[in-house]
């Protein structure tokens, strides 16, 4: 079969030849091309196009619209609303009921856009990524974390509490304690607020697990 590019090359060659004064049928004969084929190409007919009318085929056992609606009603009932087709079909079979195969029910649910959510409660809502925190000057955003420090005794640790100014990368507070406690973190933060002269709400404190609170707020 002639490729699209080859066909276009032939059309261009014949066009040049006929423009120079040659007859189109003679140019086609030299190239071994039927003039009617050239006419179809020039009319934009697609290569290998099958112009025969296509017969519409419908499977003899295709479900009717009423049957599809009935299946959707059953699978969305209270008994089956939380079940996938792989559970619905055998449970119906135990009741002596056959509505269709698992694949058939899956296809019906897919068309109805009910594959992901068929429960009565409100579907889950898309969540957007939280706005990233940033600082343009010192004492605007602190990050803090607790680091485990191993001791000479296996399984026992000291705990390093560390507060870092995100903008200046300066360690504004640090202390080692024998245990992990929110009380120690609060005491160290109060000391930092006093030393740095911070005002309520001036600094946002960001922890390693993603939560953050303005200083001076409980």
TrEMBL record:
<dbReference type="InterPro" id="IPR012337">
    <property type="entry name" value="RNaseH-like_sf"/>
</dbReference>
<feature type="region of interest" description="Disordered">
    <location>
        <begin position="44"/>
        <end position="63"/>
    </location>
</feature>
<dbReference type="InterPro" id="IPR036397">
    <property type="entry name" value="RNaseH_sf"/>
</dbReference>
<feature type="domain" description="Integrase catalytic">
    <location>
        <begin position="134"/>
        <end position="218"/>
    </location>
</feature>
<dbReference type="Pfam" id="PF13565">
    <property type="entry name" value="HTH_32"/>
</dbReference>
<dbReference type="Pfam" id="PF00665">
    <property type="entry name" value="rve"/>
</dbReference>
<protein>
    <submittedName>
        <fullName>Transposase</fullName>
    </submittedName>
</protein>
<dbReference type="InterPro" id="IPR001584">
    <property type="entry name" value="Integrase_cat-core"/>
</dbReference>
<dbReference type="InterPro" id="IPR050900">
    <property type="entry name" value="Transposase_IS3/IS150/IS904"/>
</dbReference>
């Amino acid at each position: 079969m002639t490729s699209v590019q080859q066909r276009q090359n032939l059309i261009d060659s014949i066009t040049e030849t006929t423009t120079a004064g040659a007859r189109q049928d003679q140019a086609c004969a030299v190239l071994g091309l039927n003039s009617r084929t050239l006419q179809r190409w020039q009319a934009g007919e697609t290569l290998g196009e099958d112009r025969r009318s296509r017969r519409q085929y419908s499977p003899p056992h295709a479900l009717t619209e009423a049957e599809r609606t009935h299946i959707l009603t059953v699978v969305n009932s209270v008994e089956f609303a939380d079940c996938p087709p792989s559970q619905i079909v055998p449970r119906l079979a135990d009741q002596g009921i056959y509505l269709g195969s698992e694949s058939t029910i899956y296809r019906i649910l897919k068309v109805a856009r009910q594959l992901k959510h068929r429960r009565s409660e409100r579907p889950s809502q898309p969540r957007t990524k939280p706005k990233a925190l940033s600082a343009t000057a010192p004492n605007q955003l602190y990050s803090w974390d607790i680091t485990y420090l191993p001791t000479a005794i296996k399984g026992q640790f000291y705990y390093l509490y560390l507060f870092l100014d995100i903008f200046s990368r300066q360690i504004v507070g640090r202390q080692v304690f024998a245990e992990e406690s929110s009380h120690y973190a609060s005491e160290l933060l109060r000391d930092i607020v006093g030393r740095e002269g911070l005002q309520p709400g001036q600094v946002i404190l960001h922890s390693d697990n993603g939560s953050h609170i303005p200083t001076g707020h409980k």
